[in-house]
Amino acid sequence: MTIITWNDQLNVGITNVDKQHQKLVDILNQLDEAVALGYKYKKILQLVDELIDYTQYHFQEEEQLMQQSGYDAAQYKKHKLEHDEFIEKVTQERTMAIDNPDTVSSVLLEFLVAWLMDHILYSDKQMALALSRAPAINDIELRKQQADIMHSNLYLALRESENRFKELADQLPALIWITNTQHIPIFCNRFWVEIFGLPKQKITMDNWHSAIDPDDIELVKQAYQKASTELCEQQIEYRLNRGEKGTFWMLEKIVPRIRANGHVAGLMGFGMDISLQKQAEAHLEILVDQRTEQLREVNQHLEDEKNQQVELNQQLKEVQSHLVQSEKMASLGQLAAGVAHEINNPLGYIYSNLNTLKQYIQDLLNIVESGQRLAAHLPADDPAVVEFLRLQQSADLDFMKDDIPDLVQEALEGATRAKKIVQDLRDFSRIDKQDKSPFDLEAGIDATLNIVSNEIKYKAEVVKEYAGVKPFVCVGSQINQVILNLLVNAAQAIEEFGKIYIRTGYEPNWVWFEVEDTGKGIPVAIQSKIFDPFFTTKPVGKGTGLGLSLSYKIIQDHQGKVDLQSAEGKGTKFRVSLPIP
Q1: How would residue 162 be classed by pLDDT, with cut points 50, 70 and 90?
Q2: How, if at all, do strands 571-579 and 561-567 pair?
Q3: Order of strands, edge to edge, in the sheet holding 498-507?
Q4: Residue 502 CB burial class (10 angstroms; 0-12, 13-18, ≥19)
Q5: Which of 45, 304, 353, 535 sits between 20 and 30 A of 570, alpha carbons compared?
Q6: Which residues contact 515 (CB under 8 A, 6 or more apart)?
């Protein structure tokens, strides 16, 4: 780059001095180029050192020339002072640049240019005129010449800079343009011309965006308008249609051109082809969609597996409940079989012996009656008659004759009742009869009441309201199990002494039974959980939480339904409905 262009106008008329001035200008131009192109700061410092060294050499040559030529002492002193001040200033800047390379900036360059031009075109010009004995030029005229030469030189430098910029812009594969205040391009680089296919002399405000995709043109115009009115940078993406070459995506940055007075002179823009990036983004979106779909499928698969696990866990719980019920029923069946066996044999002896004893007693009573008739025909003072009468009176034979048959009959009734309880127990808990068969519901309730009589009699009065339900086909032992669980729960829900109502009845195609208690009721918050396995409100060790769960499963297996009505402090009612085949 050239910050000062050397020409004859810069000559002062002293050959050696002019050559030295030209050398200084050359070093200054090198320094400007190094700063502009971002050379390493060591290289920049080397150029600053070279400038200082050569300037000192030049100053020594000038001072020696002035002394040898008899230059005015006052002017010499002033001239030398300018030399010393310059060396001191530049040396200070160089020292600062060691710690902060950014100090070699445009400010320093502007100082160097201004000082060097003033030194050549004013101070040294005055010296040269004086030494050559040429007519003196007043300061005003000299300053005017200096200004004209500087403007001319700076214009040339500016033109050179513009040419370099255009040359650089034409080499870049990017849109580079500058517009005026009417938004018409006053500069477009070669790539822009190739893209839009418009010669510069034919560009108008209407046609210079003709290659922009119609769907994006409004976006582009809005960005240009906003940059112009709000004086702010804009960045947009839009499509360019290039005919057979296809559509290109451009990323463009637009900035306003603002003059020193604050007025807008137009816009500048820089656009890059981002088609490959857009293709990569589109490909990435496809990949993301594919990965998202794969993840969705994996998540669905995991969800299906989770649901299967939940279903398997539910089946496991049901199997566990069946096993618990089976074990419970098996244990109860074994217990009932043992109890029935142990009680049934003695009951058989008792029942048989009581019937024999009844016959024996009847025979004895017949003998006693015969003795009484015989004693009536013997003399009253007969010793045998007297002893017989004494024994009859002592034993209260008349009372015994009336009471003994009653005692034997009561004993027989007790044995019969015990035998019935044993039979009910065996019928209730038999595990060898799981097939469906006709079942007398009300008889089953009565049998179950016999089994749990000891659990209920101290807690509640049982009120039976039967509707005369006829036998229907089901697994009777399982329905007995449901009745047992409901009765036991009803008794345990009554804290003091209350009532338990047992009802039966019909609905179309259904038979039902109810167990209602006057206990403490079930809180609403847990009513939905009472049929869950292992859920219980009883203290630890007092319940397993399986009774209602097993009952609910039995009802489900029979395609039945169970309804709950409960209010805290008032009681609970369960209604079990079973379909009639």
Answers
A1: low
A2: antiparallel
A3: 460-465, 498-507, 510-517, 571-579, 561-567
A4: buried
A5: 535
A6: 483, 486, 487, 490, 500, 501, 502, 573, 574
415-419 contact pairs (CB < 8 A, 24+): 415/347, 415/350, 415/351, 415/354, 416/351, 418/343, 418/347, 419/344, 419/347, 419/351
209 torsion bin: left (phi>0), alpha (psi -120 to 50), beta (else): alpha
Of residues 17, 50, 26, the one with CA closest to residue 123: 17
Nearest-angstrom CA–CA distance, 156 and 3? 9
Q: Whole-angstrom Cα distance, residue 505 to residue 317?
A: 33
- Give the phi and the psi of residue 529 in degrees, each rounded to 5: -105, -10
Give buried/exposed letters for 79-115 (b at 16+ CB in 10 A, else e): beeebeebeeebeebbeebeeeeebbeeebbeebbeb
What is the gyration radius of the CA atoms in the chain, in angstroms? Answer: 62
Q: Dihedral of the CA atoms 239, 242, 246, 248 (nearest 10)?
A: -30
Q: Residue with structure tokens 């018409």?
A: 184
Range picked from 137-141, 310-314, 370-374, 539-543 for highest mean pLDDT: 310-314
Structure-token pair, residue 310: 């939940």
Number of residues assigned to the chain = 581
What is the CB neighbour count within 10 angstroms for residue 279?
A: 11
Angle, CA 564 vertex, CA 562 and CA 569 arms, to 5°: 155
Lowest mean pLDDT among 158-167, 247-256, 349-358, 565-574: 158-167
Q: How many CB atoms lie within 10 A of CB 409?
A: 12
CB of 28 closer than 8 Å to CB of 4: yes
Task: Count helices and strands (H / E) in the chain.
Answer: 15, 12
509: left (phi over 0), alpha (psi -120 to 50) or beta: left
* CA end-to-end distance (rounded Å), the chain: 109
Encoded tokens for 228: 């112009």
Site of tokens 């804009």 = 234
Contact yes or no for 445/513 (Cβ under 8 A): yes
